[in-house]
């Protein structure tokens, strides 16, 4: 858990095998979409709690790509100064931590009116422009001082939707499959410096009828693997969004303990080989689960919710073996990175 690991296809090393998977804090200037200074304290808190890589919450690549109003972005050149200020302050206190900019677009899940959305239903010439939009955001990430960039291709957003047969009904070159994702990663690679880490957060299973299957995820992973420093595997979609916030009582679909995507990971590991660093999200609450996954197909693990419940959960785990107190209620999805249980315990004077 707490040993360093060198990322693939670059000379960058994470100080531990623990990644804070991307989750938005909602700390955004509503006028500009730039992160506010309060983000600095959150990142420092993470960096001081055994986190090797911090993935930002999804940073939109275009103004019409937000899935919630308080979402930050790398959508134009004016926001880089604010990102740079946050990163400079974090690095001054925690120089060893790596911070990756996760770049995304909500597409049909955007809060914009349908006529203003960029979706897979738009004309071919508009879809063909998407890789450059991501590349521009990646360039801004470099200029801001991020240590890497993560292309978000999960949870039903634009690039995830492009992989899904039940969402992407195109019959041209951008039909359901890895082509658009491949072009985006290629475009990003073309604008970042040589050896700059590129990661991808990829659905390994949509868990919806007619959606992305593990076999289709294998095709996508195999296509982009040679360009990646890290592949972070996850699953599921936010559509319908209510399903994310029903917690343990929602539908029983994810009633498993431990790593949710072990079977899917095994398929992808076999396809991409041992050279690519694989990380996994979902279900990591105990030291035994984490170590079991690291002894198997994963090189790194990428929880998120446990840090919201207790920012020092890994420190406590290392000291006493205490598991995360996160109960998987998922209210943090609704409340943009605020743990409802933690707030209640603080209000009661119990934390």
UniProtKB/TrEMBL annotation:
Keywords noted in UniProt: Flavoprotein, Oxidoreductase
Gene3D superfamilies: Aldolase class I
Keyword field contains Oxidoreductase: yes
Entries under Pfam families matching the protein: Oxidored_FMN
Stretches assigned to the NADH:flavin oxidoreductase/NADH oxidase N-terminal domain: 1-318
Ranges that cross the membrane: none
GO molecular function terms attached to this record: FMN binding; oxidoreductase activity
InterPro entries to which the protein is assigned, alphabetical: Aldolase_TIM (IPR013785), NADH_flavin_oxidoreductase (IPR051799), OxRdtase_FMN_N (IPR001155)
Protein name: NADH:flavin oxidoreductase/NADH oxidase N-terminal domain-containing protein
Species in which this protein is naturally found: Kipferlia bialata
């Amino acid at each position: 858990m707490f040993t360093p690991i060198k990322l693939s296809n670059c000379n960058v090393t994470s100080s531990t095998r623990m990644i804070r998977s991307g989750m938005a804090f909602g700390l955004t200037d509503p006028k500009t979409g730039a992160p506010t200074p309060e983000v600095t304290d959150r990142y420092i808190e993470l960096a001081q709690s055994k986190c090797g890589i911090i993935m930002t919450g999804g940073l939109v690549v275009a103004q019409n790509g937000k899935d919630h109003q308080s979402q930050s972005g790398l959508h134009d050149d004016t926001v880089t100064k604010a990102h740079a200020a946050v990163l400079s302050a974090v690095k001054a206190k925690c120089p060893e931590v790596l911070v990756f900019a996760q770049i995304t677009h909500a597409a049909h899940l955007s809060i914009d009116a349908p006529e203003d959305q960029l979706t897979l239903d738009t004309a071919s010439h508009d879809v063909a422009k998407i890789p450059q939009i991501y590349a521009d955001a990646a360039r801004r990430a470099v200029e801001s001082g991020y240590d890497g960039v993560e292309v978000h291709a999960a949870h039903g957003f634009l690039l995830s939707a492009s992989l899904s047969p039940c969402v992407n009904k195109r019959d041209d070159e951008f039909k359901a499959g890895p082509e658009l994702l491949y072009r985006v990663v290629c475009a990003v690679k073309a604008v970042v410096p040589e050896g700059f880490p590129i990661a991808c957060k990829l659905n390994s299973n949509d868990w919806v009828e007619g959606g992305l299957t593990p076999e289709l995820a294998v095709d996508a992973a195999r296509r982009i693997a040679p360009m990646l420093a890290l592949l972070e595997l996850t699953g599921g979609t936010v559509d319908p969004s209510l399903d994310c916030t029903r917690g343990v009582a929602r539908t029983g679909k994810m009633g498993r303990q431990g790593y949710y995507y072990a079977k899917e990971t095994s398929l992808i590991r076999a396809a991409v080989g041992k050279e690519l660093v694989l990380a996994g999200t979902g279900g990591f609450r105990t030291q035994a689960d984490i170590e079991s996954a690291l002894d198997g197909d994963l090189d790194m693990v990428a929880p998120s919710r446990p840090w919201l419940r207790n920012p020092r959960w890994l420190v406590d785990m290392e000291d006493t073996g205490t598991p995360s107190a996160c109960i998987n209620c998922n209210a943090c999805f609704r409340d943009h990175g605020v743990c409802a249980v933690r707030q209640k315990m603080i209000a009661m004077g119990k934390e």
